[in-house]
Every structure is written in C-alpha cells, then in structure tokens.
Design a protein that fits this description.
A hairpin with a 6-residue loop joins strand 6 (about 245) and strand 7 (about 255). The chain is globular. Helix 11 packs parallel to helix 12. Helices cover about 40% and strands about 10% of the residues. It has a single domain (about 10-170, about 225-445), classed as Aldolase class I (TIM Barrel), CATH 3.20.20.70. The termini are far apart. The chain has helices spanning about 25-35, 40-55, 75-100, 145, 150-170, 190-215, 235-240, 275-280, 295-310, 325-345, 370-385, 430-445, and strands at about 60-65, 100-105, 120-125, 125-130, 230, 245, 255, 260-265, 285-290, 320, 350, 360, 365-370, 390-395. It is of the alpha/beta class. The chain binds phosphoenolpyruvate and cobalt (II) ion (CO). The site of cobalt (II) ion has 5 residues, from loops.
Length: about 450
C-alpha cells in the first residue's frame, strides 16, 4: 500500500518478524539505535540512485553479491577483505565482458537477519525458535541461544559500522586501485584454466589503462578508487525504522542503515508493512520476485507494487530482482517484463540465479548446482534481449572463502564433497573460484544477442 506517513507500517501486519519475547525491551533497544549516527549518507544514496538509473538504460551493469547471512563471527579482516577481493575480480571481468562500467554493491555491513519459513525448529524431540540471523539470536541449538534478544540489534549495528569502516579504508587507501589487481589475489584460486584466462583479462585491462594514461599524459586517477555500496534485506522494520532519518535540505526520509535495501520475496505483499515502509523512504530499493506468483497474476501485482513503490517513475528508484530458478525462468520472466512494460515505468532488472535453484542433497545439505545458476543467467539474458528489455545486473550469494556449498564449477564438486567445507548456516554460497568462473562465463557470452 502507499503509506502517507513513515510510521504507517506500524498499524499493519508485519510478516516474518521474529517472536521477540518482550516488546518493551525491543522498544528500549531501538530507542537507543535512534540516537546513533547513520551508517551511510543521503549523498551516497543519491549517487547510487543516479548510477542505477544508468544501469536501467543499459549504460552500466550492477554486480551485487555477498553472504546469504553475514555472521558476527565473520566480521574479521580476512573475511571482509576476501569478499572485497572476489567482488573486485568479478567486476573487472564483467567490465571487460559487458563493456559497461560496473556498479559494485555488497550484501554486507548489515545482512544479519533472515525470514524463516517456520518459526520453530525441532531436533530430537526438542522444539526451539528458528535461527533468524545474528541480529536476532544465535544458531546454537539451546533455549538461551535461540531466544530472540533485541540488544543484538545494537551488536549488529556495531558490526555493520566496523565492516563499513574497514571497507571504506581499504577502498579509500588504494586497495581497489585498478593499477594493482595483484592486491586482489586469493591464494587458493589456482585452478589452471581459469587462472590463465583471468590473467589474460587483467593484462588486457592493464595495458589499456597504460595506453590511456600515455595518451592523456596523466594518471587515470578515477581508476585508483572504485566505489562500493552496501545493501541488505530490510526485514526487521523496527531496526530499519530506527535508522531512518530526515536529512537537511532534502525532502522525505532516508534509510541510513544501508544504501540500497531490498524487500525479500516473502515480504513483498502490497497490502503489508514492508511495502508501506519502503514506500516512504527515498533510497533506491529492490524487490525480489519469485515463481510463487503465477504469470497470469503478475500483471495485477506489478501494477499495484509499482503504484505503491514507484509512483513517480523516478530514475534509479526501482529494481526488480527476478529469481525464478532455471526451471521457471522461461515461463515467468517474459510475463514479468511484459507486466512492467504495460505500466510504462522503467525499472532495473537484475537476475538472482541463486534462490530459485536451491535443493537438498540426500544427506540433507542445502545446495545449488553451478550449472543451474549459469543456465538461469543465460536464459535471462536471452529473454531480456527478445523482449526488448535490459538485463541490468547480477545478484549472487558468494564468499571469498574456500567453502564447498554449491556443486559443480571447474573443480566439479559433487554432493559428496560438500561436507568438506560447508560453513553456511543458511543458504549455500558460491566459493571464490566458482564466483570468478561465473563472471567469466557471463563475460565470455557477453550481453548482446547470440549470433544464430
Ligand atoms: C535472500 O536473498 O537471502 C533471500 C531470502 O531471498 P528471497 O527473498 O529471494 O527468497
Ligand atoms: Co539466501
């Protein structure tokens, strides 16, 4: 619904919230959050919005990636730097392959809460609250750990600030300098075939850079600093509302916990609180779209959704992240594109090839096949081409660590290999090698129609 006031969501049904045991403690914790400084600024948010508007016109490409859920434990120098490294490597490869400047957005510095399909989990006859992400409770299976604790929201805010501080220092201090791609090497990414291909791309980019600098007689200073933006699912509305502010000399409210929040597939009900809250913030926003909405119903839903969230067709405001899975992309994506076209509005279309392709192994591990992920991307590129629409970006769950959570890829990981390095508490992520491989295969294909 289109809310008129920033607090209107409070009167609506708020889906997928954890069962906080004491509302008064929640109010106390969030009151403290309202006094904290923001994590990002409205200038950065408006800059990102302008870039996303360009991506929607096919002039840039969005790369959005990171963990399904960050953990407090993972707030370490290595984990953060490795995530940055893999995103930088992928973005270089994608710049090369798509011929478009890449907007880098992390699923980081705040991705600490998860919507759960069941409120409880039962093990050996004991039933406890599900794990909702580190912002809410701990994954360990005992009553104390699993009881939602609102004070963890403050710990999450702090971890977000620590993460962002380190990212800003690395990026500002030259780590992301395109003249020094060797800074981004990940020791364990050594699969011969891909490594040579990556090196060749880097060499071509470096010599292009040197040529440009020779030609202009100056260093390409813009290239010594690349931007990173942050994003997370805006699930816990009490937390997000506490970090939403009015800023001087700008209209409306800005959510200042992140640049680019998204609404998850489960909370995208137009009549409910998440859409109402997001309709009142000025950030660029995204909504996940999955196969649970039948193609026939997409027209009506998109009309209402964009009516609520994108009433003025403001450039860069609205992203739709489709995640239909390799199985349902052909049946659903053309209807989604057509539904948007019928509204006459512009959105940025981004493909999340992860969440529609989740399956369980015989041992009960959640996993995804690299082949399915690649197939969904390839089908999406072709369908956007065919429908006269722009394939504007990629949203992936990845880590810079050497985990074994998704099968396939150059190393041919099998179901039986997954137990070796399975660390995710929630969804399976591409490891660094698989992530780079995905970027390379997309780059090799390019974004133009395939010659037939
Ligand atoms: C996610 O991005 O981790 C997620 C829960 O996605 P979706 O809302 O698309 O299921
Ligand atoms: Co996920």
């Amino acid at each position: 619904m289109t809310a008129r006031h920033i607090d209107d969501w409070r009167a609506l049904s708020v889906a997928y919230q954890p069962p906080w045991p004491d509302e008064a403690v929640l109010a106390e914790a969030t009151a403290e959050l309202t006094s904290f400084p923001p994590l990002v600024t409205s200038w950065e948010i408006e800059t990102l919005k302008r870039k996303l508007a360009e991506a929607a016109r096919g002039e840039r490409f969005l790369l959005q990636g990171g963990d399904c859920a960050e953990t407090f434990e993972g707030c370490t120098s290595n984990t953060i730097a490795n995530k940055l490294k893999i995103l930088l490597q992928m973005s270089l490869v994608l710049v090369h392959g798509t011929r478009r400047p890449v907007i880098r957005v992390g699923r980081f510095a705040g991705q600490y809460a998860k919507p759960r399909s069941s409120n409880t989990e039962t093990r050996d006859g004991t039933t406890l609250p599900s794990f909702y992400g580190d912002n809410v409770n701990k994954p360990t299976f005992d009553a104390h750990s699993r009881t939602p604790d609102p004070w963890r929201l403050l710990r999450g805010y702090e971890r977000s600030a620590l993460t962002l501080n380190f990212i800003r220092s690395l990026v500002g201090g030259g780590f992301a300098d395109l003249h020094h791609p060797e800074y981004w090497d990940l020791a364990f990414v050594e699969h011969a075939e891909r490594r040579e291909e990556y090196k060749a791309i880097i060499e071509r980019i470096s010599s292009g850079l040197a040529f440009m600098e020779t030609l202009s007689g100056t260093a390409a200073s813009d290239l010594s600093r690349v931007d990173f933006f942050t994003s997370h699912e805006g699930l816990l509305l009490n937390y997000e509302a506490a970090l939403t502010r009015k800023v001087p000399r700008r209209d409306g409210h800005y959510l200042l916990s992140t640049h680019y929040p998204w609404i998850g597939m489960r909370t995208a009900d137009v009549q409910q609180a998440h859409v109402a809250f997001f309709s009142c913030i000025r950030n660029p926003i995204a909504v996940k779209v999955g196969p649970s909405i039948e193609p026939d119903a997409l027209h009506e839903w998109i009309k209402e959704l964009l009516g609520a969230l994108h009433p003025d067709d403001e450039p860069g405001r609205m992203t739709l992240i489709h995640r239909f899975g390799a199985e349902h992309t052909a049946s659903h994506l053309p209807a989604l594109i057509d539904a948007v076209h019928k509204t006459g509005k512009t959105v940025l279309f981004v493909c999340d090839p992860m969440h529609g392709n989740t399956r369980s192994t015989a041992d009960g591990l959640k996993t995804r096949r690299f082949e399915d992920i690649l197939l969904e991307v390839e089908q999406s590129i072709e369908i956007h081409d065919r429908c006269g629409s722009v394939f504007g970006g990629l949203h992936v769950e990845l880590t810079g660590e050497n985990v074994t959570e998704c099968t396939g890829g150059a190393r041919g990981l099998q179901d039986a290999d997954l137990a070796d390095g399975y660390r995710s508490m929630v969804d399976p992520r591409l490891n660094a090698e698989q992530s780079l491989e995905l970027a390379m295969l997309i780059a090799r294909r390019g974004l133009s129609p395939l010659a037939t």
